[in-house]
Amino acid sequence: MILIGRSSWVLPRQWKLWSLPRTALTYVLAIDLIAVTITTLAVRSTLSGPHSGVRHSEWVAFGVLAVASTLHLEFARGIERRRELAANTSPHTNLKCLWIFAALLLLPLSLVVPLVVLAYTYSWFRVYGRTVAHRKVFSTATYVLASAAAAAVLRAGGLLDAPRVPTGFWSLLVVMAAAATWWLVNYALVIGAILLSTPEATAREALGELSDQIVVCAGLGLGVAIAAVQSSYPWVVPVLMVTVLALHRDLLLPQYQRAAGIDDKTGLATSSYWASAVPAELARADTLRSTVGLLMLDLDRFKEINDTYGHPAGDEALRAAGEAIRAEVRNGDLVARVGGDELAVLLPGAFESEVLEIAERIRERLVTLTVSVSTTDGGTATLDGVPASFGAAVYPAVASTMDQLILAADDALLRAKRSGRNQIVVARPNHSSNHSEDLQPNEAAEQTVSD
Hints:
Nucleotide_cyclase, alpha+beta, Alpha-Beta Plaits, 62% helix
């Protein structure tokens, strides 16, 4: 058996891998097998070559690159999680390639492969979360094949010994050719998998955006720079981490924002992105036999704030409430503004007890939230608490479609508002709104524990 993300244990015969079209399945397994073969040959070559074994300096370089790539993934995981979800049938562009290509110039292939495996394993658990395991295995395999092809170009160009960084015109051409080879092999393998596994995808969709591939080229170029610095001034690499993170944000965050649709007033996701994210997460939950929690909430005092202090004050209160909600959800959860003062939280993989626990944390934080707002007369006022009413629903327990799930959560929210506000109402499985259970503020935590 295999554990996929945070989903339940799944028997091998139930893996999503086997549902791929026959040609796609054969293709994926063949690439995986070739990657394993290349890894075996690389290790054997390192152990039996003329300079058998790994030098101390190479182990040090491996350690530096492993730590740097892990920190990079950790700091950028919020952006990457949402970008992957938005990728759909296009290649998911990331900047792991900069560390892998730097490793190619500094290390034997037998150490490059473990770095690839480490990066994707860490991403699986910390960045991408609940996703289909065979996709990450395949991505790892494409990186291994691309790295092997690039290493062959470096050897053919005469760059046999590390560090293989450009020191003249010829070595620069060889390194550029190796980088181009790495990009082309990885890109072609990914496009092939998309076209074979998703017959309805067009070639245009599979190719993705040209700007995404420019990002990959930038990453490969930065990998050359990191390798050069690491080989001569290794203590400068931590300084370069700041540059890497800044480039990641500047290069990839705008694409993420365009895809996600960031609300200007709150910084939360817009209703349009929300509408595309919900069915994507439900489909993912179907694949992984997992769950999706949904919270819908309204700020109880929003109209009063607008009427008393003006709409700018209402915007400030809404923004503060959005920040408070984001502080209480998990990594990978999505907080969106779906209406004027109506917010929503999508909780992939959450069961009812987790949904209620998170809802209660948010409710308590909003009740105790202190917000300083601007008033219409040019002064300021302090709001002691921005309470909210909550409606909760969990897929597939209470609904089998997106519309049903949202309707169940909305109906529970309406009951919470009618029952006195500042409370949580959860929709029950296979019951109408009349059978939803009202949870008073001090009861929600007890319900969470009992479940």
